[in-house]
Amino acid sequence: MAPLTRNRAVHGTDAPQQMNVDYYAQRASDAGLIITEASQISPTAKGYAWTPGIYSEKQIAGWKLVTDAAHAKGGFIYLQLWHVGRISHPTLQPQGALPVAPSPIAPVKQRTFIETGQFAEIGMPRALTLNEIPQIIDDYRQATHNAIKAGFDGVEIHAANGYLIQQFLSDHSNQREDEYGGSIQNRLRFAIEVTEAVIAEIGAARTGIRISPVSPANDALDSNPTDVYFPLIKKLNELQLAYVHVVEGATGGPREFHGFDFKALRREFHGAWMVNNGYDLKLATEAVESGYADLVAFGKLYLANPDLAERFKRGSSLNKPDVATFYGGGTKGYTDYPFLG
Ligand code: 8OZ
User: Fold this and answer.
1) How far is the CA of 314 from the centre of ligand 1 (A)?
2) What are 155-187's pLDDT values in tens digits?
């Protein structure tokens, strides 16, 4: 099950609550591995209303209920670690501050969803100073520590979809002149240091990372993704991760992208390769049987089908995801999708 933002944590504390426990428990005996929705590693890491955090005791306690329920069903569950960087809004930030980013560059025509229940334009972020970066890396380490306390089997680093780590990777959003910007090696530095910090807490065998090399999501597409992602994969080989998780194409959109060779990128990596974006049973079976992918993550199909794998096995029809209930709200469109009889 792929990570899916659902905006249903407790308002005010961003702690998981009973309906979140029920939602994950419904899917835990069916999915081989659940990757949770993205969860902010600190208050500044938040970019949307009611997303869960993994930095406070209340949040850890809420997640512990989720992992206990998933494990009781025989499931495995990884937490996705998230810092949104510039994809936020002052009303979501401590003291109404500006969101932080590698460089003071606003994403073009991007909106976020704030706690009034409305969409808001994303503005200019504040560039992180060089001496603030170690604290953010330590926030990833602490969040990993918290995830272990909360009973997770592992963590996935969210380096995709135009959030902070991809903002450092991309020449479009990173125009720093210090050791975190400029050359490819410098733009990879933040991603690698975060990954090393996470591994130091939980071990490489329980650490995955998600990337989206060609996704225009949140306006962080690099001008030459091949130049960035092949060296990144080479570096990741040295770290012996549990897996690399790749969003192919535009997140939630077309899989086609001219001039980027995902098959070659896969061959570059020596470990387990997880793919995502628009997979159905046929495409997934081909990806695995051809030896291209080791794992396939399903997002919207799992959202709407708590027993997706069972439906695949039986060749059953699938429930349709209801877009109107994706982000925010209660149990409607969340824990009420029917199971097979
Ligand atoms: C949809 C809405 C809000 C956030 C991502 C975490 O794209 C997200 C996200 C998706 O990775």
Assistant:
1) 31
2) 999 999 999 999 999 999 999 999 999 999 999
Which of 4, 5, 88 gets mutated to test ligand 1 (max ligand atoms within 8 A of its CB)?
5
Question: What are the phi and psi torsion angles at 326 (to 5°)?
Answer: -65, -50
β-pairing, 243-247 vs 100-101, is: unpaired
| CB 266 within 8 Å of CB 292 | yes
Report CA-CA distances (Å) from 151 to 15, 64, 83, 252.
15, 6, 21, 30
Alpha-carbon span 16 to 69, nearest angstrom: 13
In whole angstroms, what is the distance from residue 258 CA to residue 254 CA?
11
Contact 73, 28 (CB under 8 A): yes
CA distance 112 to 93: 13
pLDDT tens per residue, range 63-87: 999 999 999 999 999 999 999 999 9
d(CA 240, CA 27): 28
Q: Which CATH number fits domain 18-325: 3.30.70.100, 3.40.50.300, 3.40.640.10, 3.20.20.70?
A: 3.20.20.70
Helix (H, G, I), strand (E, B) or coil at 128: coil
Residue 313 contacts by C-beta under 8 Å, 6 or more apart in sequence? none
pLDDT digits (tens, 9 = 90+) for 198-251: 999 999 999 999 999 999 999 999 999 999 999 999 999 999 999 999 999 999
For ligand 1, the distance from its centroid to the CA atom of residue 196, given in whole angstroms, is: 24
Contact indicator for 313, 335 with CB cutoff of 8 Å: no
Catalytic residues: 163
User: How crowded is residue 135: how many other Cβ atoms within 10 Å of its Cβ?
Assistant: 12
